[in-house]
Amino acid sequence: MRLLETVDLTKNFYGLTALDKVNLHVNKGEIVGLIGPNGSGKTTLFNCATGVLPVTGGRVKFRGEDITGLATHEIALKGLSRTFQIIRIFPKMTVMENMLLAVQQHQGERILSSIFRTPRIRSFERKARERALELLEFVNIAHLNHHLAGHLSFGQHKLLEFMMALMSDPEIVLLDEPAAAVNPTMIRKMMDHILQLNHEGYTFFIIEHNMDVVMELCNKVVVLNYGEKIAEGRPEEIKNNEDVIEAYFGT
Amino acid sequence: METFFQLLANGIAFGSIYAMVAVGLTIVFGILEVVNFAQGEFYMLAAYVTFLVYISQIPYPIAIVIAIGLMIITGLVVERFAIRPLIGRAWQLPILSTLGISIIMQNGAIVIWTPNPRTIIIDVANINVNIFGIVLVLQKLLIILFALALFIGLHLFIQKTKTGKAMRAVSQNKEACRIIGIDVPRISAITFAMGAGLSGFGGALVAPVMAIHPVMGILLVLKCFAAVIMGGFGNIKGTIYAAFILAIVESFAVAYLSLQYKDIFAFLVMIIILLFKPAGLFGRKVGI
Amino acid sequence: MRISRLLVLTAVGIFLLGIPYFGFSAYVMHIIIFSGVYIVFALSYDIVVGYLGMLSLAHPAFYGVGGYTSVLLVMRLDVPYIIALPIAGILALLVALAVGYPALRLSYHSFAIVTLAFTLIMRAVWINWVSLTNGPMGIPGVPRPVIDIPLLGSIHVETSTGYYYFVLILVIITCLFVYLMIHSRVGRALLSIRENEVLAETLGVNAFKYRMIAFAIGAFFAGLAGSFTAHYITFIGPEFTDFYYVTMLLIMVILGGSGTIHGVIIGAVAFTFIPEYLRITPEFRDVIYGFVLLLTITLMPEGIGGKIDEILSRRRVRAS
Fold first, then answer.
1. Partner residue facing A88 (CB), from C180, C186, C199
2. With an 8 Å Cβ cutoff, is C112 touching chain B?
3. Quick check: is B43 in a domain?
4. Which of B82, C101, C122, C216 can pair with C61 through a Cys bridge, CB separation 3.0 to 4.6 Å?
5. Given a contact as 3+ CB pairs under 8 Å, which chains touch B?
6. Own/partner pairs for B47-56, CB < 8 Å, 24+ apart?
């Protein structure tokens, strides 16, 4: 099933075309890589898909449903999660508070019952905490849950951000350069986590520059250059694709 | 019974003043990214200075110059000590600072000069001028002409001079300006001083035609806020148009609708516009 | 730490309950009661300015809405005060929702200006809608609260002591509510919006919805404060929606410590007492307030409450 799909997705910024009729899709259960030289529009595509940027043309579909133009939080509630290139967490809150923030009840959320902590809310919170600890345990930072998120190391930040994206039990997770600026041991751990989570049913769409990561993790790779999709296929095919090589290295 | 054109002329005269003060607001916002809640007070203080200088037997034209000069100096002081230290920190701080300054100036004026309105009578200014059947006191005509000259001068300044170009650059991208060596604090100071001077000019010009009292600034500046919002923060042309539109609407509304709610027409117009175009009539143009 | 905090609270509680018996003069009791009102008013403002982080200049309008609503309900429609009070708050809340719906979509700067415009418009309404509000003269002779408890009789709130306990209940309710709110999901969501709105939205937080909630709750308590004041000084008038209250609230909240309950309480009490003991004209007082505001913003923007928190957390870090 096509979990996430873009149809002729186009994005213009004051005359600069960042995305030009991009057609791609991510099937359920896949790990798809999105690569391309700097400035090719990868993060812009993520931003358009998650409602952070308004779309100029084309459509974005999630589980067949048109989500173009929906607000970011609405898209998040539908089961689409993401991380950012420059890590975004809340440094002045504790790790646990960061995790708890990442779970939102659906639109029926009652404000007063939240404030007065009715039994339903309390059990909801308890379950949320349990899940948070589970996820933090999965990446071995559960012991830090009372620490201020700002005090964590860079690698731990990335793991926290990753786990926050999973708190809402999304169907698909968009990772923006998970291996950037991370040491090799950590990269290895990241990849193992992603593979394991993929086994458990999570679909991944990953922007990455690190080709080893892409080659090893991804079932399929999509290549962008100057806002256009120039290639798509299995990692081995892409590695030897002439257009791709030219895009990255010139002729 | 005031004719259509009479009301229009009145509106244009007031619009000139609104526009002057509003442009001061908008350039300060465009370059310092600060909403100057004290802008009306520069207008008010200039009116008082004009009054004080004039009753000391100094000719009115010189009084205008002195008033504007003092406002420029005040503007420089305020920018240096109450605004510059706060830029870069939480966005609310500079605004709260100007709010504090506005409170100090307004109440200071009440303390020093009492709330009783003052007036100056300049016989020449009160001559009725008859143009195509429209009767205006000379002063109002002068206001319109001065405003016109001012806006032309401002346009030339911003388009042609080095400082003007630097101002445009800063309003578009402050960081880039710092990198290429434009003295951003200096431009900020100049801009704020200009804003104060513009407002002061307006105050000095209305002194002969309006009662001078400590809260005259607040009543005016809110309408100028409306003009800035409608015209687009940082957008000089838009602000000027919006200011005139507001003044003209006000002029007609007061005549045909209700005198009681006179001061809130501007807000109603502003609110209606914002409902349909949250970014203002002309949008927030990047740059001046 | 928890036990000592409980002990402190209990001690404070006993102290507060005993205040009417300490033999304060009627004048001092009057100031104490007013500081109670302003605690509620200032906390309600802090919800919007401190937790939501938006500069709203509409709070005096909500104060006025609360006051006029409860006075008109009690005097024209014979509604019992115990019902009129919450309705006053609810009406203020509804007005806030109506204003907030368009206004909260605007940029922060436009929002500040629009809320200011709203306050001025409300003031013009109070002054000009004479058939409803009696115009600039206001409505004197507002009846003191009478609370009918079935089977037990009526409580007439008339004396200093009566009003004191009443405002004390309001203060406790407000503090409790704010405390619960901060420590709930709502509080966390507000904090996340303030810290990083894009991230919050990506995590599913509907920033607009929470803005509306904070704005509305802030208005609710402002309305309650307005209602209490009207039935305490037995008068309601356009002065309730004076711009002066903005100055006052800003000083209380910012100097007191925006975002901290104890800080705002300190700010409210301090700035209710201090002006009473400064025998100066209101304008001179406001000039000083202006300077205080400037100095606070430049030198201590976290306020007294923030400073206290800083000192306490430094001590805690050293202890561990």
1. C199
2. yes
3. yes
4. C122
5. C
6. B47/B203, B47/B204, B47/B206, B47/B207, B47/B210, B47/B212, B47/B216, B48/B109, B48/B113, B48/B118, B48/B212, B49/B204, B50/B120, B50/B203, B50/B204, B50/B207, B51/B118, B51/B120, B51/B207, B51/B212, B54/B120, B54/B122, B54/B207, B55/B120
Q: Which residues of B touch C102 (CB under 8 A)?
A: 271, 274-275, 278
Q: C177 contacts in A (CB within 8 Å)? A: 115
Residue C113 has its nearest CB partner, among B92, B107, B225, at B225
Return the CATH number at B236.
1.10.3470
Q: Write the CB contacts of C182 (distance below 8 Å, at least 6 apart in sequence).
A: C51, C261
Q: Tens digits of per-residue pLDDT, A58-85?
A: 999 999 999 998 999 889 889 999 999 8
Q: DSSP letter string over A70-85?
A: --HHHHHHHTEEE--S
The Cα diameter of chain A in Å comes to 66
Q: What's residue A6's pLDDT?
A: 93
pLDDT tens-place string over residues A208-228: 988 889 999 999 999 999 999
Q: Side chain identity at C180, as an amino acid letter?
A: L
Tokens coding A100: 């708890």
Q: Domains of chain A (ranges plus CATH)?
A: 1-79+170-251 (3.40.50.300), 90-167 (no CATH)
Query: What pLDDT score does B270 carry?
Result: 79
- Cα(B95)–Cα(B201) distance, integer angstroms: 23
C313 touches chain A (CB under 8 A): no
Reduce the DSSP state of residue A22 to 3 states and report it. Answer: strand
* Positive/negative CA dihedral, C287, C292, C297, C298: positive
Q: At what angle do helices B60-78 and B39-54 cross, to 10 degrees?
A: 140
What pTM was computed for the model?
A: 0.86
The residue count for chain C? 320
Structure tokens at B49: 């200075």
**Domain span at B236:** 4-276
Between the CA of residue A106 and those of A222, B29, B117, what are the distances in Å?
A: 33, 39, 59
Return the number of CB contacts < 8 Å for A and C. 78
Shortest alpha-carbon distance between residue C35 and chain A (Å): 26
Q: Give the residue with greater pLDDT, A109 vs A104.
A: A104
Distance between CA atoms of residues B83 and C207, nearest Å:
30
pLDDT averaged over consecutive 10-residue blocks of chain C (320 residues)? Answer: 81 88 88 94 94 90 95 92 94 95 86 88 88 88 85 82 92 94 87 88 89 95 96 91 86 89 93 84 86 88 84 63
Tens digits of residue pLDDT in B118-155: 888 887 777 777 777 777 888 888 899 999 999 999 99
Whole-complex ipTM: 0.83
Residue B211: how many other CB atoms lie within 10 Å: 12
H-state helical runs in C47-184: 59-77, 81-103, 108-128, 130-133, 160-182
